[in-house]
Every structure is written in structure tokens, then in C-alpha cells.
User: What shape does this take?
Amino acid sequence: MTPSVETAPAPATRVWLFALLPLALLSILLVVLVKVGPAGLANDPDVPPVERLVVERAVLDSEGIHVAVLNDGPDDVAIAQVTVDDAYWAFTARDGRTSLSHLARTTLDIPYPWVAGEAHLVKVITSTGTTFEHEIPVAVRTPHADWRHLVAFTLVGLYVGVIPVALGLMWFPLVARLGRTGLDVLLAVTIGLLLFLLIDTTHEGLEASGVLPGSYQGTALFVASAMAAYLGLESFGAWLAARRARTSRGESAGAVLALLVATGIGFHNFGEGLAIGAAFALGEAALGTLLVIGFTLHNTTEGLAIVAPVAKDRPSIRTLVQLGVIGGVPTIAGAWVGGLVYSPVLAVLFLGFGAGAIAQVVLQIARQMAGTQSIAARFGALPVLSGLVGGFLIMLVTGMLVG
Assistant: This one.
């Protein structure tokens, strides 16, 4: 009788076993930590619960105040009472839940007769007596999705995004007549404009991430979305350049750059629309003449930044319109989202996308201008340096008009 020979596992199987074994053991450890807690302290009655309740949004309508809350802490939170302006009010949880686990949310409906134009203070009190406050600075009916509000926010987006960018595109005939030195100065002005937008977007993104619930890791979310946009535009630009090399009818280098600029500005304007829509929804902004003029001046320079890379390409009217749509129309979409279904998470995401996209475009333009030179040497030339500083100052001055 021939003895049986046991076959050894295939090398690939061994690799998978070695990879999965630590993960399996780690899973067991995590289960133990969740159930028991470190050194058994999780169930210690002397350890107080950690309660972090976040009021995400307050909606005001004819039926009262509706407060959306999220449990941002590790322990369960039981909502016991609600006060408005230091008076106790009855409330109902829309889904019937007043006890929230980690990252669970609910909406509290409070039949409070709020007064338009006045400030109100809502306090949510848990079963342990911990109080969480949310101030409504100016009480105003929250916009809801109907034709009147859709048209109103569309007009806001047109005023501050589409029309200014279109006006900036009308400088193309002048830009197309510039010589090589003039074009380099104009591209440097474009970089100055974009650098200001980059700083402004980063500031707004970090500010918005600071008000997110801690569990969302707002700063990390902003940085991750910025990196995603940067790498995504890098890949998109490389794909367009490869397509241009494969076919004689592909886009020119300037056309590719203009498309990237318009995309980056579009991301920025979506974030801008979010902020504007949210401000109108909260009654904290008015569409006054000064605001319209300020945003028009501020965003007209974005149209100049879009046409600068195609100054020598003689693009068609259709191409210019397409670039203007990419750069300006996202302002309308942002105003819709900000005014009707505002989400601070979306605000951080799109501000991050805007920052990453603008950073990629700035580097792309700088590379094209430098050519075989180093970027530092190219921008050390006085005309180019003057254009860079001038572009930044233009955005700084027009930004002051916006407030």
C-alpha cells in the first residue's frame, strides 16, 4: 500500500493566511474592548457618561421650531427636556426616539410661536441634566423647496457667479492681442487671482470644518477632499494631454489649461454658493446693491483667469460659453443646496475640492510659464512678479467690497 503524501498549502494560500490572522485577532481584541472596556472601566458606575449632543440645524415654519440633533459622543444620550428662551416646552421626536446612540440623530418638533426678526435660544437637556444650547440669531421662516425659492436662489447664483464670469470672458478680444511679455504678465495675474482664491477657500474650509461634529473629523475631511481634487485634476489633465498627443484634433495645451482653471473655479464657486444660500436661509444676508456690486467685481476676475490660457488659441464662442458655464453655473447649484438643504459636511467637502483644484491649477500654470526654467527663476522677473502681486491685490481689494 502506497503511503499518502500530504500536499503543502500553495504559497498564495499561506500569504492570505498570514495576512488574515492578525486581522482576525485584532477583531477579537476590538470586540473585547467594546464589550468590556479598558480594564473593565466601561461599566464602572462611578465613571460619568460622556455626552456630546450637537444641534445640526434649526428649521422655522408655521408649526414652530424643528431642531435636528446628533449624538457626537461615545455614550448613549437620552433627551429629557427642551426649553426655548428659558421656558420649558413640550416636544416630540419625529421618529419617536429620544435616546440616541453614537452618531444617531433625530429631529425635535417644538410648537413654539417664534417671532420673526427676534433672537431665540433653544436648550436641549439630557436625562443627566447636561444642557446643550443653540442660538437662533434672527428668526426667519426657513426656505423650502418650491418654485419661488428655486427662482430666488437661481437669481442669486446668476448675480454672484454666472454674470461676473461672463463679463470677465468678454475681455478675451483684448487678451488675444497681447504679445508674449503681456501674456506672461496676464498669466502671472491669473496665478495671483487664484492664490487669493486658494487662501480664501482654505480659510473658509477650515472654519466650516471647525463647526462639524468631532466624529466627522472635519479638518481631515477637508484635507482629504482637497487631496482628492488635486490628484483627480492631475489625472484628468494628464489624460487630456495624452489624448492631445494621440490625435491632431485634440485640445491645445492652452485649452486643456483653461478647462482645468474653469473646473477649479467652478468648485470654488459651488462652495461660495453654499455659503451664500445658507446665509439667506438664516436671514443673515440681504441682496443689497453693495453686495451685488461687490461680488460682481470680485468674480469678474475669474473670467479673466479662464481666458488667459487660451489667449493665442482663437477659441470659438461655443468654447468660451462652455468654459463660462463650468466656472459660473456651480454657484447656482451651491445656492440651491445651501439655501434649501444645507449640510455642513457638504460645505466642507466642496470647499476642500475647491482648494485642491485651485492648487493644482496654480501649479499647472506655473509649470507652463516656466518651461525649461525653474519656477523661481521665471517668477523672479520683474514684469511677471508685478503681475503676480497685482492679481493678488485685485482680489484683495474687490474682496473688501464683498465683506
